[in-house]
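Complex record, two chains
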Amino acid sequence: MLEFDDIQHILLMRVPALTGRYEFLSFRSATGGRAWLSAIREKVQSAAEVRVSVEKEKRWVTVAFTWNGLRALGVDEASLASFPEEFRQGMVARAEMLGDTGANHPDNWVGGLATPDLHAIAILFAGDEAERERCVTEHNKFIAQCKDVEVLSSLDLAAVPPFIYAHDHFGYRDRLSQPVIEGGGELPTPGSGAPLKPGEFILGYPDERGPPTNLPQPEILSRNGSYMAHRRLQEHVGRFRDFLRQNAATPEEQELLAAKLMGRWRSGAPLVLSPDKDDPILGADPKRNNDFNYKEMDPQGYAVPLGSHARRMNPRDTAANMNRRRMIRRGATYGPYLPEDAPEDGVERGIAAFVICASLIRQFEFAQNVWANDRNFHELGNERDPVIGNQDGTLEFKIPKRPIRKKITGLPVFTTVRGGAYFFLPGIKALRYLATLGDVR
Amino acid sequence: MSSGRNQQDWTKPAAMAIPKGGFLKDKVEQGRYGPIFPKTPACYGFSILAKVIPGREERFYEYARNIEQAVAAQPDCLAVLKLHYLRWVLFPIKGDTYFMYQGIFDTDFDKYTEDAVALFGATGLKTVFENLEGFPADWQTNAPAFVKFVREHQCPSFLEYGEYPYVSAEEIKKALRLKAAFSDMLDQMQ
């Protein structure tokens, strides 16, 4: 049985937010950090709380810490050493393996995210702009009183219009194909496979291999916690639209090219099920929009190119041990919408996402290192993920087609990593444990 | 992150001298579990050498029969390892038995480590490594410990050669399938 009242809501639920803000914080002293946490943790909602209140609530708060942040709060050295090495090192130290080189290198990151001073993130999701403003003002006032807590940077979130469904700045429908957790209360949609053991995402529970092992200590700190890999990806919308126009003659062909890069039409309709024309009703239908495989239905990639984003991030029945590689995705878009007919304006916009998993090295890093950035994935030879891979303008994208495939050479860079970090997402009791670390026990 | 296919010509046999320690100077690629041994004209590979726990030799022969049966029953059971060839060798040094496990494959070992651990843990493929001195008892739940053992017992090559360099097993199989398809087509045209 999952302890819903001890699990931060972000792990199990999506909230109906249209806006929000991330604050990246640094603690100059352990007592200062703990004072901030003592107050903010009252605002952090568990999954149980959000379940009963999601209709009437208008704001949702999550907090998480880097390894340096746990140390800054006063976690003892033995406990710090019990966390997995990749989390202790942090995302910056793992940059080369993750593909964060060239323009994506941490030297180019913004907001202080690449510095060891990054200790915590406070995530605010809000139902509307007024609520966001109210919460930000309140938090700013509170931070001003915390003399040893510094805001390194913040990022304002904004959904991309039209607000009928969640999508990114490129126009792709988001929130499709999420794993379902056993006992989490959700039923998997057709094609999504059986629910996965909770230990794949939440520390302290059995995972797809067996009982939990090698958990960070003490148990109160790790239980009901998880890891969040944060990725801030700038989307070069003008360049993306230019690419579609330059490589496809008609609006219909441009839509098809966009679909080939992703593996789904921008409406969300899977190319496997609707290979030749878009089907927005299918895209919006959760009973049908995930009900397909690759091995039997599209082995050569005639519908979904072997190197497309969706086929890399979730190879379904064409990869081994898929149940050990799944990830929960959360996050939001940021930056202003670029109207369809407007030229690139140079303003930063993109996705600020979190990948939630119980093992960064086995889940997030594997996906990034092998699925997104292995040039030879599926014997493709000279490709990386066309959307999130480390592109430098020299790679290819091959679109299988009878009788002759289409090969795009010199694929442009559509996204740039602007920041990232590994966070530990503690359970509710663990937040109290951290907040009271200095107290006599 | 893979540097990808080496663009060298497969028609031109190639040899590569590898510096002491097994890594090429200035070109060490990082994997999830540490630096990756380089891809050579003989693809990726490892040569793991370790001492057998005294009295356990017979287990290795038993293991060989198990693997033979497992592969016969399910020919793609090792597919995830992206292999060309594997060789298991036992040899004596001063009265002790040592084991050498040598593999040639198309992707660096780091990439599919967890899959390999899961594979070895699957029924019938219990790893013979359990009979080696120093092998971690908790290997099934501790992939990093498994990797550490493999890395510590890896003896890197100082020279590797490929008659058809850098070609993957998948490419070879594809070429043979194509050859078979052409033969079939020619037969049909008689």
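Note: Residues 1-6 of chain B have pLDDT under 50 and may be disordered.
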